[in-house]
Amino acid sequence: MKKILSLLLATALFLVACGNKNETKGAADSQGGAAGKTEKLIVGATPIPHAELLNLVKEDLKKEGIDLEVVEFNDYVQPNKALADKSIDANFFQHVPYMEDFGKKNNIELSAVGNIHLEPMALYSKKIKNPNELKNGDTLIIPNDPTNGGRALILLDKAGIIKLKDNTKLDSTPADIAENPKNIKIETLSNEQIAPRLSEVAGAIINSNFAIDAGVTKNEIILIEGKDSPYVNIVTVLKGNENDERVKKLVKALQSEKIKKHIEEKYEGRVIPAF
Length: 275
Fold this sequence. Notes:
Low-confidence stretches: 1-34
Radius of gyration: 28 Å
């Protein structure tokens, strides 16, 4: 009888142990499944430095449950159009003046959700070392979009190369030039077309990202914006999506010490952290 009772007790203890083991395993599996669950976030960006910075935070976001997909664009129009048609969730390439101008002209409600960096606009040249060396009738190329074109003209105005009717007007065009003592010819092109033309003219004002991407060096800068420029590059979403938790995690990752250090070490002042 004692043997039978001992056998029954051993069997019961074995079954309880197995049950506890299975419950523990089930709980662990459940927790692992929750931890392994990720949400997709698609962000449009121009290649340098924007897409590069995004790719640097992919693994950080994965730990936060975000699967970041970076879609690269080579102009300043398509990223906002992709945002409007909702083929991407956010973009990272522009500053607030450009965003506001584009939104107004294209009837798209856009919203800035995080300051990341500043790209000081500069006048580059392969022919001269100082703006004072510009000759009568020389040609300079500037961006043709309203905000960056105006920004370029303000830079030339502050350097005394030209004088604008109003040097606070962000959307100034060559038609707003009041004085041009050296009869400088101002040619306008889309941002991505400027750097390849640099060797053909006396100089060109190029956004840092396009200059870096085209291999135009820091040594070719003859005039540059100050660090107080208002043209900070931002993460942008459609209005109403400002509280998207995925985007909040993205902004936090981009405003990290890791990204700040990368910007300061790699871009030699042509890209400056703005957070």
